[in-house]
Amino acid sequence: MTQEGKEFLMNHFSKLNTALDQNISDPMDTNDSKSLIGNFKDSSDGFHKVEGVAKVVDLEDGKTFLRLENLKATNGSALYLFLSTDRDASDFVNLGRLKGNMGNQNN
Description:
Layout: H1 3-14, E1 19-21, E2 30-39, E3 50-59, E4 64-73, E5 80-84, E6 92-97, E7 102-106
């Protein structure tokens, strides 16, 4: 694909953003003593961009969920979240489809 084609697609998809702003239901209910935090990594192809922070949140009731904060990702028809143990994503788990490509969300 040409650079012009990539730019056209980026402009097109940037107009189709799905923004979310989900809150943690009760911030007083969180236990941050074992927080796991990581940053998103682009695909390095110059086309699929992503930034933001992922946090594993443990609630006092024993529930655990993944919180995505300040997410900004190139939109597309089907965006999925993968958790990887290395930079090359040779060992990963598919965590499912994203609810949106911008903002904060709980999964």
